[in-house]
Design brief:
The chain has four helices and ten strands; from the N terminus they run E-H-E-E-H-E-E-E-H-E-H-E-E-E. The chain has 180 residues and is of the alpha+beta class. The strands form three sheets. It has a four-stranded antiparallel sheet with strand order 3-1-9-10, covered by helices on one side. It starts with a strand and ends with a strand.
């Protein structure tokens, strides 16, 4: 199984993001609204016995719920080429705390530490040879994006299956957060 831990987004927030994706950028492959999520930890290919250990480790976590606010818009580059368009997340100590607890729990059961710095975001589109002027115009027109805060009351272990057009994400287990 190919696994990752993420925050699933409520449908009303997905709709706000989908409205942004309705704008046209040549060369953009927009993420389907049902695939919008905020990755807390990518795990990758995992044998069945280890998936069970991951489930037990995540189920034992105790962390408080919190409010999440999506704000801002930007791009990620790889090798000097812009490869994705994302919506940012306002920094939040509770989100950072949850991320840290997940990382620690997964390392305790033998997973390698995450090498990338935690940069919370929701991917809107994958980009391939997008005209720079079009992309710059889109980012400039939408970089003040801000959605109303939403309560986060759980995090989810997802499996991912690569498809022809887009990956298919399946929520495997939800883990509740403490109510404040």
């Amino acid at each position: 199984m190919r696994l990752f831990v993420a925050l699933d987004l409520p449908w009303e927030l997905r709709e706000r993001l989908r409205a942004l994706a309705a704008l046209s950028i040549p060369g953009a492959r927009w993420v389907a609204p049902e695939n919008y999520h905020l990755t807390l930890r990518f795990i990758g290919e995992t044998p069945g016995y280890q998936a069970e250990e991951i489930d037990h480790a995540l189920a034992a976590l105790k962390a408080p719920g919190f409010a999440l606010t999506l704000a801002g818009l930007g791009t990620f580059s790889k090798g000097g080429r812009v490869v994705s368009l994302w919506i940012g997340v306002e920094r939040n100590p509770s989100l950072d705390h949850l991320h840290s607890k997940i990382e620690t729990a997964l390392q305790r059961i033998g997973l390698e530490p995450e090498r990338r710095r935690f940069a919370p975001h929701v991917t809107l589109a994958r980009l391939d040879n997008v005209p720079e002027a079009k992309l710059a115009g889109f980012v400039q027109a939408n970089n003040l994006f801000r959605a109303p805060s939403v309560p986060v009351q759980h995090f989810t272990l997802f499996s991912s299956r690569l498809g022809k057009e887009q990956p298919v994400y399946t929520a495997e287990v939800e883990y509740g957060l403490a109510t404040t």
